[in-house]
Design brief:
Helix 6 crosses helix 13 (374-389). With 451 residues, the chain is mostly helical. Helix content is 76%, strand content 1%. It folds into 2 domains: 19-219, Growth Hormone, Chain: A (Up-down Bundle); 235-442, Growth Hormone, Chain: A, CATH 1.20.1250.20. It has a two-stranded antiparallel sheet. The protein is built from 15 helices and 2 strands.
């Protein structure tokens, strides 16, 4: 019995057939990680080459700031929804390959851009491709792994979401220095004499290498087994409850993302303005905090979440997300004291909690969504969290300017916005966990009975 129990995770689901083998599941996860890294390499180098690009094109700080993010917000949100809808209906191998080609062409357009307008066009293409990626990734991982192991699989993917940007920016700086030293002149690229062009072009190339590898992955959607019925509430409950629960989870994810953005966006400034760090010290501290939190949060949350799922069903994983969100309140309270050492420790733990809660919310939403709506549901979460999270930095600034005063107004404002958002997220998640526990959706996968 024990060997069967140990291998149960990669047997067909109780409700599903056509499950992926262990090797196929990990191949999907590994490829999704590599694709995400390639997107970071295409999208983020511009952040470390602002001044060279601005000088070459003769544009202002405002214009380059628009190209960095603002121009991509709308296409990213729209394509998150469109990509989710498409991923429920068409080949994910084809959709992912199209997305890679689009963002690679966008990055290469930026490399050859001779004007601000062409630079914006390239960034628009890049964000269109980027918006399509997450719904495809989440539904693919969800199908590849059995329910009781999806927390760890999604957690491993969220490690890259959290730490990938830092690593991409570090690599971009290294490639830029090599370009400035003339290391790529022999390649004969028609990119002019500006090193930033060669850096942008070369870091976009890894994406193209992913396309043939994507077509080597298994892309099969799990289908319900006809003779294996889930325990379920009444037909009316089944029609009403998942919608309400999913809306609740989307709201909770948006609140957690707002708390994370409110802290992360102002964290370096707090260290320089309130605690006297120089820019290099603040940047190093910020990098350490984000790398640790972005790695430990999803892995720890995924491991504990899967354990709770096996013992208590879906409600156990939702309760864990609620507790993780609530733990942010005392951790953010450290912003109220002038102790930078304690602040570093508290913010690292706070990052662990927020990333864990966010990754768990994605996993829980996937469990509630029907198979043919998971892509669109993931797109809705991605779009909603992007929009709501963008308000976090502004809420902190408004609080600092109009509600609080003094040299510690900024960190106190972060604590205020973060605490309110965390309490609201915890309350929403707790209510969701309670309702999940009262319905049949708490244990959606029932092992078939063998005579």
């Amino acid at each position: 019995m024990e060997p069967q129990k140990a291998n149960r995770g990669f047997e067909p689901d109780a409700m599903y057939g056509n499950i992926y083998s262990r090797a196929q599941a990990y191949a999907v996860l590994a490829m999704m990680v590599l694709i995400t890294v390639s997107l970071d390499l295409a999208k983020l180098p511009m952040h470390v080459m602002v001044d060279p690009i601005r000088k070459t094109l003769g544009i202002s700080d405002v214009q380059i700031s628009l190209a960095l993010g603002a121009v991509g917000a709308v296409p990213f949100v729209v394509m998150s929804l469109v990509g989710g809808w498409l991923s429920d209906r068409f080949s994910r191998r084809l959709l992912m390959s199209i997305a890679i080609v689009i963002w690679t062409l966008g990055a290469m357009t930026c490399a050859f851009a001779g004007s601000f307008e062409l630079l914006v066009a390239g960034r628009l293409l890049l964000f269109i491709g980027a918006g399509m990626k997450l719904p495809v990734v989440m539904t693919w991982i969800n199908d590849a792994f059995p329910p009781e192991q999806r927390g760890r699989a999604v957690g491993a993917f969220f490690v890259v979401l959290g730490s990938g940007p830092s690593l991409a920016i570090m690599l971009a700086g290294t490639v830029q220095r090599l370009a400035e030293s003339g290391a790529f002149v022999s390649l004969g690229l028609a990119l002019g004499s500006e090193p930033w062009r060669a850096t942008t072009f070369l870091l976009a190339l890894p994406g193209i290498l992913m396309v043939p590898l994507v077509f080597g992955l298994r892309d099969r959607r799990v289908q319900p087994v006809a003779d294996c019925k889930p325990t379920a509430p009444s037909a009316q409950q089944a029609a009403e409850m998942p919608i309400k629960l999913i809306v609740t989870l989307v709201s909770a994810a948006a609140l957690v993302a707002l708390v994370d953005a409110a802290s992360l966006s102002w964290m370096p400034t707090v260290f320089t303005r309130s605690f006297g760090y120089d820019v290099q010290e603040a940047g190093f501290t910020f990098g350490i905090i984000t790398l640790i939190a972005g790695s430990a949060g999803p892995l720890l949350g995924g491991w504990v979440g899967d354990t709770l799922y096996r013992r208590h069903g879906l409600a156990g994983r939702v309760w864990l997300a609620a507790v993780s969100a609530l733990c942010c309140v005392p951790l953010l309270a450290v912003y109220l004291v002038s102790a930078p050492a304690w602040l570093v420790v508290a913010l690292t733990l706070n990052g662990v909690c927020t990333v864990a809660a966010l990754s768990l919310t994605y996993v829980n939403a996937q469990a509630l969504l029907p198979e043919n709506r998971r892509g669109l549901g993931t797109g809705m979460i991605s779009a909603t969290t992007t929009i709501v999270a963008s308000a976090g930095p502004t809420l902190v600034a408004l609080s600092s300017q109009h509600l609080l005063s003094g040299p510690m107004a900024l960190p106190h404002s972060i604590a205020l916005v973060g605490a309110v958002g965390s309490v609201l997220a915890a309350f929403v998640l707790a209510d969701c966990a309670r309702r999940v526990g009262l319905t049949g959706v708490n244990r959606p996968f029932v092992a078939p009975h063998h005579q």
